[in-house]
Fold this protein.
Amino acid sequence: MLNPRAIGPQVINYRSLVVGGAPGPENDALVYRGDSFICSAAIHAGVINDGYGGCGVVSLIGERDSFGAVTRHGISSIGFDSHFPMAFTFGQASAKCEDPRWNLLILSTIFTALFGIFTTSPVTFFAPIFTILFFQTGMASDPPSYSNYASLASTTLGRFLPAALAAALFYQFSVRKSLRNCKAQVEKTVLWVGGAWVGALGNYTFERIPIQRLTGNDIRQQPGAITALVIIVIILFAVVLYQAWCFRREGRLPRYLALYATLGLGLGILAAMPKLTLRIHHYIIALLLLPGTALQTRVSLLCQGLLVGLFVNGVARWNFDSILQTAAALRGDGQLGSGIPAILEPVINGSSITFAWESLLRGYQGVSVVVNDVERYRGSGGSDQGNFTWNRSDGGQDEYFRFGFISYQLFGSVAYSDFTRAGTWFSNGTWGGIPPGRT
């Protein structure tokens, strides 16, 4: 999860959405709430392996009353102690299957190593390795969403052509200068090719770094992100100082200082654009830093390969995403910061509870009510006053209610405000109130 997500009274973030996983009451099958991530739940259940994949059978089993939390196979699931209208379990597949991408990765690694060891010309080294890296990433190691392999091939080829043009430019101004007359074939292969694979497989190699996106909000709220960013900045600063010293010894430092001053000025202008946010993507980091690796040193070879790999991973997986994005594009499914409904004290009558409200936020036509994380009511008509009654079918469990405004738009689409935190109607019939805050 890259944004806070409400699970009953809990709010989770930066973890797999796996709810349940404790054995069901009728048999030993592990039961998961229906909105859990299927692949993460399958790993949690031990049906597939996180490293090698696998096959299994998902069976929908309808409504379930509770989902226990348990830690298994490196994933800690989330508990939910009320009913949910859909759940699923796993069964073992009848035939064993394996993920062929790892075999392809071994083959691709061997070929790039051979090009690294046996080629001396910079262009015959760079062109095939860049191509192998790109198609390995885009078609296998970190592919974008696709419906079939033909559509994936079309998408990857469409991204490869402009990426190859960009690669030709940074080859001419950076890579060629590092590789020209380079006789250290083994060091070139280990440092440059090895670094390129580390960058291209960033979804695996950088997975443990607690920084998902380079945005202020993510860095502030993700545990460990600030510490990780400080360490990265210190390492980057040390590398920059060393590279600057090398450029100074070659007499090229003033030229590169002017280049980076121009790039810094450009970024400052972009950051000042109204109603848009500067977003530094993988490929942009690579393009910004690659000119500073136009040296034939071990540090340059390693950093240059790493940056080329980052460029490949960013474009093959996410395409040339804009360096300027709107707040809505960055927010995704995160909180809007909007107003939330003010709910009056509910009226409890035995097995029923009635909620009421007396005002709507401007621009919205009703109130949406979510019960146990499922939308159960949508108000309409634009009336400021409204109410909602929920009848409890089983008095043995707590139930959770959240409220948000809803707006009806063209062609049947709807838009929501933020929702309240979950108020709890306890199994003993008492109302626990709605905590302050948003979801």
